[in-house]
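To: structure subgroup
Subject: Chain for Friday's discussion

All,

I'm putting the inputs and outputs inline so they're searchable in the archive.
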Amino acid sequence: MLFNFLYPLADQFSALNVFRYLTFRTGGAVITALIVSFVLGPYLIAVLRAKQNGGQPIRNDGPEGHLLTKKGTPTMGGILILLALVISTVLWADLTNAFVWVALGVTVTYGLIGFLDDYRKVTRRDSTGLPGRLKLILQTVIAIAAGLWIMDLLPEPLRTTLAVPFLKTVLFDLGWVFLVFAAVVMVGASNAVNLTDGLDGLAIVPVMIATGVFALISYLVGNAVFAGYLQLHYVPGSGELAVFCGALVGGGLGFLWFNAPPAKVFMGDTGALSLGGALGTVGVVTKHELVLAIVGGLFVLETVSVIVQVISFKLTGRRIFRMAPLHHHFEKKGWAEPTIVIRFWIIASILALVGLSTLKLR
């Protein structure tokens, strides 16, 4: 909004020329989202605590300590992240850029699905929420619609193709199968973040790390000079997603202030589904879907641990892990919650560096 209203006046007021720079507007988005989170956070948490009557229901089959340490903590804290993200993005991004609206659309609609899931949990005092099949169907429909929109916005050589890390100019044309692939990326990323969200601060920091990486990727891929130098596939207009990613990082930082152990609020599915959907969408737009699997490798690891656990139990009747997702396995082994969280943050940071290395190793 500021860009659309103020930058056209740069000829009369030269100071307004700063709004042309993505780096300036991305920084502004981070700070704005952080301030919004700090201002609205205490009020939102108070409202959630008053309305939810006991907070998020805790699974009886989960780690025993959760019944003592997390009981009564309100959920739906993802609303705070979404408010900060939307306000900051609308304020600092170029609102004529369709990629921004695709990313916001997927993020908000996935957040709405998560909100309905959280609402069902707290009103029925039941940890199951919406039926899993219904959530998956809703996510898939939204992802397909977003995928079609993205395909229409991408330049012709990239519309239905898959880029491969470490290979310079290789593009695999998937045809209409790309739409299915894009939907899998968005839905998979959304649910992977949701599975990871089980301990105070565990999911939000890796999300911010991955988002920070994709803010840089968006900036580079959307710049013809940098994309050419690094031999990346140039996607005109995708650089504006750096502002979106900056707003997400700022909102995440603000949420972490309240989610740091012991958490005053949980993000719930409202936050986890929307944040994962945001990452998946940016990955598809920037043609770095496979890099997302590396940068977000922690989410992949958590998801694989659940899949392996289910397959093993169905086929052999035995469990490989003491409990899935993986972070609960280490809880069952006696690791302290802060130990698990910080070590998983370290793993996420290492994987982010590996993902960044793909930008040069081509």
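Points worth raising on Friday:
The beta strands are 161-163, 171-173.
The chain has one domain: 2-357.

D.
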